[in-house]
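Hi P.,

Sorry for the delay on this. The queue was packed all week, but I finally got your sequence through. Input first:
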Amino acid sequence: MSDLEGFGFVMPHWLYWGWLAVMPLIMIYLDRRSNATSDEVSEEAPIEPAQAEETSIIVHEEIATPVTRVIDWISEHSGLFVAFWTVNAVCFYFFEVVMRYLFNMPTIWVHEASFLMLGMQYLLAGSYAMLHGAHVRVDVVYNKLPPRGRVGMDIFTSLFFFIFALALAGTSWTFFIDSFNMSETTVETWGIQYWPVKGMMFLGSSLILLSGISKLIKDILLFVRLGQGVH
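Then the structure:
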């Protein structure tokens, strides 16, 4: 840490990685505890007629298997986990603004910590986005197809998705192994380890691949069900 003297507070590397691992778990616990309290209050409140009517809406049974349920659970909770990282970016940059403009002591770690974190978040949230249909698609032809045609189009285009996902996973694994073997660090003054970031690239691509498998299974089951006239 002698090279970093004179820079004020510099977040230790171990604290950065440990906080990213623990902070979302704390936030999820607090969120569930808050929801449990609000549920208790709502149970005591009378239900208005309009609300009762909404709760009586029949929801179609989700087409799923035990395998897809497990994958979807992982996708859902991995997205929830990394979503709380955004709070860190807000706090980090607030700290940077205060240190820079009030104390004339700009940090050497806030920007790097934030863009590495948001890059990992982008990759790890891919499976969550796929689960909820949030990825961008070209709908010029897709929207003109009947429901079964749309599902069939999804099944056909999944071939291109798996080519991309497998290539991303294979390349990310190579990046991670090479970075880990050389104990790669960033080139900035903070010099934090870079191999965990590339490890998150591989993990994120693996989660996207799993999410694609889940979607393909459900699309095939839905395609068959629509062919049988079952809705």
